[in-house]
Amino acid sequence: MAQYSPFSVSAKRQKKGPAQPIKSIWELLYHKGTSVSTLAEKLEETAHRAPQISDQSKNSTNKPPACDWYSWAQVIFTSYPISDIMVILFVRCFCSMKNCTLCYIENENQEYLMLHRIKKLHDVNQDKWIGVGGKFERDESPDECLLREVWEETGLTLTSYRFRGVVTFVASGWETEYMYLYTADRYIGTLKDCDEGNLEWVPKEKVFDLPIWEGDKFFFRLLEEDQPFFSLKLVYENDRLTGAALNGETIDL
Question: For the chain, which domains are there?
Fold first, then answer.
């Protein structure tokens, strides 16, 4: 039985006041010793609040997609005098974030805890229903990332969970992402509000009625069938699923 204590990791990131314009990439990278994922969020917030680019932000057609750090770099670095070497350092740091976890927690009523992503600005999952989880922080294992993210987003501490498979996401214009998929059936704690969306218990048979990603339906079926550990590859063109493979074999869409 896996155990986790919220006291074994740093406290959940707290919201701060209005972000200040970035003076140098070093100030961003070493800001109070925070993690890369936290710095990424700070960059996105700053990019929208910095007065130098406020006019551009008003036009939605000029907004690069969430997590497209190269596009953000182009916006930021045209507003601030930073050397090409620092630009390369920035892109290498932020484009390396490609590992994440996702967990579907179930209760005794055969319901999954689903997160309706409606609160976060410029969210690639905007309006979608997904599980809980997030990006790896430095030196974390998949299990450590899972436990930290679940606790941060839900207030729950998992006491029994299962590693179900690895999902590879390939999408045009994005870094390939590797998602470590888990399910959990025991936990302690009290559910709290999540700053990324609304948490809701949903009967398993009704999950397909929600606006979920098309590729998610593949791994939901694998979970329902209690398939052994699997490797699933999903290929997207914009928001459209164009290819899939299970354990190296192509799946008909």
Answer: 25-94 (no CATH), 98-250 (3.90.79.10)
